[in-house]
From TrEMBL:
Keywords: Carbohydrate metabolism, Hydrolase, Magnesium, Metal-binding
Presence of keyword Cytoplasm: no
Taxonomic placement: Bacteria, Pseudomonadati, Pseudomonadota, Gammaproteobacteria, Thiotrichales
Enzyme class, first EC level, given as a word: hydrolase
Similarity section: Belongs to the HAD-like hydrolase superfamily. CbbY/CbbZ/Gph/YieH family.
Protein name: phosphoglycolate phosphatase
Organism for this UniProt entry: Beggiatoa leptomitoformis
EC number: 3.1.3.18
Gene Ontology molecular function terms on file: metal ion binding; phosphoglycolate phosphatase activity
Amino acid sequence: MPNALHNPTGLLPTVLFDLDGTVVDTAPDLAFALNTVLQEQGHATLPFESVRPLVSQGARALIQHGFNMTVDNPHFEPLRQRFLTLYAANLDTYSRLFDGMAEVLNTLEKWDIKWGIVTNKPHFLTVPLLQRLNLYNRAACVVSGDTLPTKKPHPAPLLHACQHMDVLPTTCIYVGDAETDIQAGQCAGMRTLLANYGYIQAHETPANWGATATLDEPLDLLAWMTYQTVEQAL
């Protein structure tokens, strides 16, 4: 990446990220919490590979998968709450930034490009995780899943982030690993980048989601932004 370039992306001054599966690899801690609940209930634990693709779907999907039960089961909500309690106590035991993401964030800041987080993860989990990873005070905006009455795929959280950061949606790009991320970004009028390295299930067809571009690793974001600037200059 050419360090001599200073903010080569003047037409795209803001980058918004999903959290789980995009900025932070949280799957190990979420899988640990799920398997702990399973063990407590006398069930066999699940292999990590079967849990990882579901992480972006949230706690409900993980409990449904682990216990093979629907949300209307009377045992479902107590199990979900136990899972959340365990996870909240072990937010960053194994969770780390995806390889290359630290360089991405450092470079955006070097270019004076604001970045923020828009996630469906609830506030009581989002903020402590970002604080422990030393990201909270660096982010220009953090919108959690319960910040507003609606969450992704509704565009409201992304539009709320833009309002908070005093930027136009058309000047933002949104990076996420779920179809709901791409849908929300598109509805908000943003360019959308698919984090193909994230938590995508085998049956999903991300090529059909209509993202502006696909990132196979976090560092691809910097290359994409630089390429866009070169294209605009021609």
